[in-house]
Amino acid sequence: MEERVERLTSTKSTQFRWARSGKVSTLTDDGHIYAKITWVKSWGSLATGESADGRWTLKRVGFLRPRVTVRIEGSQSDLAVVKMDWNGGGNVAFSDASSFNFIRAGFWHPELVLADSMGGKVFTMTPSTGLGRMGATLELENEAARSSWRTSLLAIVGWYLSVLVAEYDQNVTLIAAAGASGR
């Protein structure tokens, strides 16, 4: 049985938790699900994001200039494109010309901050990792953002970027370790 995804407006909470289990990640608080991402395959970058506001596909494209395309599920047109930075942040440009920025903050304990086009914080995502698990705390910084469908979508995009960066870092570490061992 599929669990229902609720609207951010249905709670007064400002803190949520991303957790990943296999190909599925969920954004939850107090047992309620507010967003979900499902990777289509165990490998590859195609994923479907879902909130009470809609369903979207996300896909990383490009190599030297990587970006992420966001489409309404079933559409062939980009709703938004994320141009990624070298450090895991990026600019999100929507097809209606609105934009947001993901900014990596911190070195030892990096956070991903979402800022609107005026520089105001929308949310902050703080990763937490442990042996074999990956998660993050998402804290809404702007109460007005709770009612926008973009906030849930951008929470999905932010987590998607975090997973891509973590997997890239893990692969680089494995390659470096294999090279150091002479294999």
Briefly say what this structure is.
The protein is of the alpha+beta class. The protein has one helix spanning 149-180, and strands at 15-21, 24-29, 32-39, 47-51, 54-61, 67-72, 80-84, 90-94, 99-105, 111-116, 121-130, 133-140.
Describe the structure in your own words.
The chain contains one helix and twelve strands. It has 183 residues and is an alpha+beta fold. The protein has one domain (8-180): Porin, CATH 2.40.160. Strands 1-2-3-4-5-6-7-8-9-10-11-12 form a twelve-stranded antiparallel barrel. The radius of gyration is 16 Å and the shape is globular.
Summarize the SSE layout with pairings.
Layout: E1 15-21, E2 24-29, E3 32-39, E4 47-51, E5 54-61, E6 67-72, E7 80-84, E8 90-94, E9 99-105, E10 111-116, E11 121-130, E12 133-140, H1 149-180
Antiparallel strand pairs: 1-2, 1-12, 2-3, 3-4, 4-5, 5-6, 6-7, 7-8, 8-9, 9-10, 10-11, 11-12
- SSE arrangement, N to C: EEEEEEEEEEEEH
For the report, how would you describe the main beta sheet?
12 strands, antiparallel, barrel
Q: Which CATH first-tier class would you pick?
A: Mainly Beta
Q: How far apart lie the N and C ends?
A: 46 Å
Name the beta content range: 35-45%
Shape: globular
What fold name stands as the CATH topology?
Porin
- Order of the strands making up the biggest sheet: 1-2-3-4-5-6-7-8-9-10-11-12
Number of strands: 12
For the record, the CATH architecture stands as Beta Barrel
Radius of gyration from the alpha-carbon trace, in angstroms: 16 Å
Helix content: 10-25%
What would the average pLDDT be, to the nearest integer?
86
Structural class: alpha+beta
Number of helices, counting only DSSP H or I runs of 4 residues or more: 1
> Which oligomeric state applies?
single chain
Low-confidence stretches: 170-177
